[in-house]
Amino acid sequence: MAKYSLRVITLGYLAFLLILPVGLIGWRTFADGLSPVIDALTSDDAVHAFRVTLIVAVWAVLLNTVFGVGAALLLVRGRIPGKRLLSALIDLPLAVSPVIVGLALILVYGSFEPIGRWFGDRGVQIIFAVPGMVLATVFVSLPLVVRAIVPVLQEMGNEQEQAAHTLGAGRWATFWRITIPGIRWALAYGVVLCLARALGEYGAVAVVSGRVVGQTQTATLFVEERYQNFDTVSAYATATALALIAIVALLIAKLLDRGALKRSEKH
Amino acid sequence: MTVVKAPEIPRQQRQPETRREVPARARARAGTGVGLGVAVVYLSIIVLIPLAAVVAKSTDGGADFFWRAVRTPDAWAALKLTLISAVAVALVNLVMGTVIAWVLVRDQFPGKAVVDTLIDLPFALPTIVAGLVLVALYGSGSPLHIDLAYARSGVFVALLFVTLPFVVRTVQPVLLELDQDMEQAAHSLGAGGWTTFRRIVLPNLMPAMISGAGLAFTRAVAEFGSVNLISGNLPMKTQVSAVVIYGRIESDDTAGAAAISTFLLAIALIVLIALELVQRRAARRG
Q: What residues in B contact A28, CB-CB < 8 Å?
């Protein structure tokens, strides 16, 4: 009896909080068929917004992947002082409100601040432009790749790397032929999570982008702007597209996670 | 040739480790140094210097200015709403997250794998999409005739949505690892289901439940995107702190925005340190 009531409570809670709302958007988006959705998603502003989102996300993922692999190696293999502090600092972005992220970047890289002005004098605008949006997205998604790799590196141990060393492999050869293949599932998992987060970032980008329609407007900002302008067709269509991307990312991440699990069980 | 070869072979056999390890280690140490330097610079450019700039800006006008900015009526009302909702959200998650984790681990029903995957959806979904989705079901024109738009209950539901996975995902692995022998022993000694749960299972889950709820709290305090649409951002009523900060930035009051931000950052820091202490204590006991 208790078993069934707990099951009913769980499914009821999830239905009203998660499944019905998300399902309703999907249903409303396609209520009038496919063609208005396609029209909305292929309008100039929508296409431009998705392109900006993609550019920003690709840069952010690239930077965080390189940093993530390096930082994970440092945290697991490096013999460095202050490891706990470094680890805590890497997790810090998760606790910071996206709006504060935006404010923080404006206070350093805004065109009225010393550093921002220095860049501005050299023709590089950071805030209200793509570089600032990349910085904001890197900030919010910073720990994801690191946290995906660290446990796998720990479990892998460094016997294989040391064996490669004693057989005469250099650091690069060891890295590319032993370390990277060893962590590839976890790395892919982290990259997918990071990409999903980067594609969906809203608050931090809203602050640093200046929300210029057709210029610095990302897909998430497009959703909000269309909704506020009572163009619910575009808002729903774009939101559904973003939700589908998120669901696909989630499924891929699940598969990669399971792949990593199977591999570690084999060892 | 033979003269050269002969002494080389035994020497390699005698001490192959020291011959290779010394330069490799020295190089590794140099590499670690460079790596650490790059990591620190990267973190500084993106995270540390900007956050330090927020704190510096907030104290520019002295303690007086700081408190005045935080105690401005709309900022103070938003802060109260944010903290009260975050505590309430953490408490609901503490109970519901544990129930969901329990069902996902101990119960069997068709479609369980799908439900398990869905739990992570709030993390993957862009916050603005989460907001839009909730407005569609719980806004004006709600098909369920539940209108939470422009109300504090709307803020609460949005925060519940985005914090759903935290407790589930911290409790679930602990529950999976938990040995059921003790529960069976309690059962055979005559303890009922609830007593067994309260006396045997709950103490084991508590550290994970608390750390999950703590994470949900910090997330709720920081939340912006999902609350934005459903709350309507009415000052003194449904405006949360993140929205107030956003408004201050828009109206070029970056000093005021920085003061409220610093206050929120301090709260998040305190909670994170407390969580770390809870976990360390649990680790020592466990």
A: 136
Give dist(CA A100, CA A105) in Å, integer: 9
Would the CB atoms of A242 and B129 count as touching at under 8 Å?
yes
pLDDT for residue A258: 78
Domain edges within chain A: 1-31, 34-266
What pLDDT sits at residue B142?
A: 81
Task: Please name the CATH architecture into which domain B62-285 falls.
Answer: Orthogonal Bundle (1.10)
- Summarize chain B as % helix, strand, coil (round to 5): 85, 0, 15
Dig out the tokens for A138 from the structure. 């890197």
SS3 B169: helix
In angstroms, the separation between the Cα of residue B2 and the nearest Cα of chain A is: 24
The SS3 assignment for A227 reads: helix
B224 → chain A, closest CA residue? A203
The 8-class DSSP code of residue A217 comes to -
C-beta neighbour count of A28 within 10 angstroms = 17
Contact yes or no for B128 and A202 at CB 8 A: yes
pLDDT exceeds cutoff 90 at B46: yes
Condensed to tens digits (0 to 9), the pLDDT of residues B66-98 reads 999 999 999 999 999 999 999 999 999 999 999
- Which whole number is the average pLDDT over A206-232? 91
What is the pLDDT averaged over residues B29-35?
75
ipTM of the complex: 0.90
**d(Cα B159, Cα B220) in Å, to the nearest integer?**
6
**Sequence-ordered list of residues with C-beta below 8 angstroms from that of B162, at least 6 positions apart, any chain:** B122, B127, B130, B219, B220, B223, B226
CB < 8 Å to A75, chain B: none
Q: Which two tokens stand for residue B283?
A: 């680790």
Residues of B in contact with A97 (CB under 8 A): 221-224, 241-242, 245, 261, 264
Residue given tokens 């239905």 in the structure block = A15
Residue type, B227: V
Q: Where are the domains of chain B?
A: 17-58, 62-285
Contact B129 A243 (CB under 8 A): yes
Q: What percent of chain B has pLDDT over 70?
A: 88
Chain A CB contacts of B172 under 8 Å are none
Are A103 and B261 in contact (CB < 8 Å)? yes
Kindly indicate the confidence band of residue B215, based on its pLDDT and cuts at 50, 70 and 90. very high
Cβ B132–A235 below 8 Å, yes or no? yes
Tell me if A78 and B47 make a contact (CB, 8 A cut-off).
no
What share of chain A has pLDDT > 90, as a percent?
66
Tell me, what's the pLDDT at A262?
A: 64
Cα–Cα separations (whole angstroms), residue A115 to A27, A123, A209, B44, B135: 48, 13, 18, 14, 41
Instruction: Give the CATH superfamily of A34-266.
Output: MetI-like (1.10.3720.10)
Determine whether the interchain pair B24/A165 forms a contact, defined as Cβ–Cβ distance below 8 Å. yes
Q: What is the pLDDT of residues B138-160, one digit of tens each?
A: 988 888 888 888 989 999 999 99
Alpha-carbon distances of A133 from A47, B140, B151, rounded to whole Å: 18, 33, 32
